[in-house]
Amino acid sequence: MASTKSQIKKDTGPLAPTIFVIFGITGDLAGSKLLPALLGLYVKKELPDRFAIVGVSRRHFSREELREYLRDRMNIKHGQFFEEDIKHFLDHLSYEEGKFDSPNLYQSLAVHLKSIDDMWGQCSNKLFHLSIPPALYEGILLELSASKLTLPCSDGTGWTRVLIEKPFGNNTDTARNLDKLLGKLFKESQIFRIDHYLAKEALQNILAFRFSNSLFEPLWNREHIERIHIKLLEKETASERGAFYDATGALRDVGQNHLLMMLAIIAMDKPADTSQSDAMRRERARVLSKLIAIPKRSLVENLIRGQYEGFRRESGVDANSLIETYFRITTKINNRRWKGVPFYLEAGKAMAEDRVEIDVYFKGDTNGKIDRRNKILGTSRQNILTFRIQPDEGIKIRFFVKKPGPGMNTESKILKFHYADSPSLASLPEAYERLIHDAIVGDQTLFASTDEIMASWKFITPILENWSKLPLVIYAKGATEV
Amino acid sequence: MASTKSQIKKDTGPLAPTIFVIFGITGDLAGSKLLPALLGLYVKKELPDRFAIVGVSRRHFSREELREYLRDRMNIKHGQFFEEDIKHFLDHLSYEEGKFDSPNLYQSLAVHLKSIDDMWGQCSNKLFHLSIPPALYEGILLELSASKLTLPCSDGTGWTRVLIEKPFGNNTDTARNLDKLLGKLFKESQIFRIDHYLAKEALQNILAFRFSNSLFEPLWNREHIERIHIKLLEKETASERGAFYDATGALRDVGQNHLLMMLAIIAMDKPADTSQSDAMRRERARVLSKLIAIPKRSLVENLIRGQYEGFRRESGVDANSLIETYFRITTKINNRRWKGVPFYLEAGKAMAEDRVEIDVYFKGDTNGKIDRRNKILGTSRQNILTFRIQPDEGIKIRFFVKKPGPGMNTESKILKFHYADSPSLASLPEAYERLIHDAIVGDQTLFASTDEIMASWKFITPILENWSKLPLVIYAKGATEV
Q1: In what order do the strands lie in the sheet with A447-448?
Q2: ipTM value of the model?
Q3: Which entry of B224, B258, B418, B437 is annotated as an active-site residue?
Q4: Do B399 and A274 touch (CB under 8 A)?
Q5: Quick one: how far is CA A10 from the chain centroid?
């Protein structure tokens, strides 16, 4: 994109001039994820030639102070980037101070954005990122709308898009309300609901793996798969995020979004055209909508809720908190492919190790039963395909070979593949780089559709409503199981 | 087995006293394979407590000279065994000198064996190993029979068994004649036809892999497999075995036996009971009997015969030899599982590398056709499962993962498992140890049945008869393809 020419002829392609407006620029997410991702894209020359970042926050900073502050928050590793690149990148950053609920802020912001457009001689694209607590979404969205910042320029150029972070509501009703509000201000094609798990390379790779290897897809059904176990275990305690966590709980924090997205990706049907964003989102939503609600008469058999010992003593946590830091759900999917196959969804804080993975258990010689913790009682000779999401992203297969010597006894071995062993795959791009890139080019594949969000809440909300009927299991920090 | 007691009560179990009679004790096979295998079993205490080896040969040796001579031929690696074990092992060896076609030899041999039985106070088992050129089989078998050495002792104890090396005949007729002769002297349960490939751990493991991993067996058919390529490539030239090779050719040397056995193992149906020797042999024979004969009208399309440049100058080789040192056969199997799936059988001397392996190509996106050398013309995205038999025994799967970054492009990667990486599997027992062990305990699973032999000759003989109608392709030593 030659700059001289583009000052005469307007840029309107996918990398046309773009302003990123970040509400909550001084927050955790902006500092630790958004800005590093933008810097990463900038260095790789994957941002538009003309881009600006406008940070919005209540706090008082001079432009210089803000740059200093953010430079620190970005936590850039020594040697990761050239100092000059960081400096040039931060030159694109400007600041708008104000209260999110004050109409004045949006008027100043409109002037601010207009001045950038004037400098570029063209109406730019605007990407609004709500990097703030969900309670503030509605107010900001309404003010954005009132100030007409959600509209394209008067000549019809310059798209506007909004990036929304999870949690998207906290039950079916609040999610529906937020959706309605968004629907009034934006078309679905302008709304980018982030679940950063969707953009993880290791998750995307599950789709590539399923749909590019004819070896596995014929086996991907109830006839050959016995059960699937999706887990997101963290060593970390709630610690500094105690107040947030006590208000949210594990099920809302990672269950409704990350775990169900993993389930959608492992279980969805293959769309006729995997390159079509709509088709991909439709199939994810379709499989989520087929999740069987946990029957009220069998809550105890299908649900475990736990809280780690000491959670109530974390700062910001109620001394009598009944919030869950661990859950385990056993569910099934009501379609031809999966009828009868149990899916286990498990997540917890303060566990023995960090481990996010999906285990696909194939049918085989199972000598003995499986208990409700997915443990095999007795011996088994089962193939297991494991997708490790983190750490050590990779794929492994447990299979059986002959023990050397007379007879036909077998022992289990592992066929494995680690991204880290593969030079071209060793540096996986950060999920947020991918998400920002896709939002700029308008590809919604890795963003949750309204149908997906509503299907996931439809499954999760009844569990939340029945949570209090279940015993709260107190587990020791560093537990391997609950 | 306590020795004092056993002198009173006779041993009759699988490890009852046994004499190994080796015809051709001074030959290559006895020195390089049989005796090392017997020594290996001896050290592992897998031979009967009371065992003797009686070597038979035309050459003149004192017992001491023979021991010296064999000690050298056995080519024992320094440190592989304790000197004391080797010495004690060789103490079990005695010698019978004579001409194979002289009745006197068999009379002396009978006296020799009787004297050992007398010493042990019990009629022992006798295992006759014909470690000699096939031309001598008939004479020896007839003399053994005439001298009644093929019969148990007069009290009905002491089994007799015969181990026959390949080649078992050199076409359908000679194989049938040999079979008839054996059938007159022995029951099928006494006849152990050796194809040492059958006893290779890596081949046995294919069965374990196929039948113990529910992941793969559902894919093991024409619906999911596109073609199978079985190859046995050797760097070695005919060199010192020129005369033998010029009389035999690659198809008889390794095609009728090793390659077809590999095919049987990769393609056979699973018997109801894999622990039943008869059932295993029956399924191998059944799939071999379904091989489709190469049609006379399409010899050139389905057969390649080659000879490496310089073969005719090898010592012992006719200067105008038309014998093949390389062949490649394309065939199919006429049953439900495999109908329409091409099987490629390829073997050659003087090739670029040593490589014995089976490649199973799964159906997938094949952009382009496959030429008759099994090369894909165009690009492909096919899963390939490879069983490497030697060197570096192992299993690998070519599969596809996502290329990092935007889009859903894939690249091929390898999931692999090497025996050598696995401590418990690192020292694979020699095929001959397994074969001798199984012959002692009477397990015929790893030996070719008469049905298998006849089915394989039925497929190979017409090819041999039509060989001369095909061009003989001369290839350079070190070729990667012909």
Answers
A1: A93-97, A51-57, A18-23, A125-130, A160-164, A191-194, A447-448
A2: 0.80
A3: B258
A4: no
A5: 35
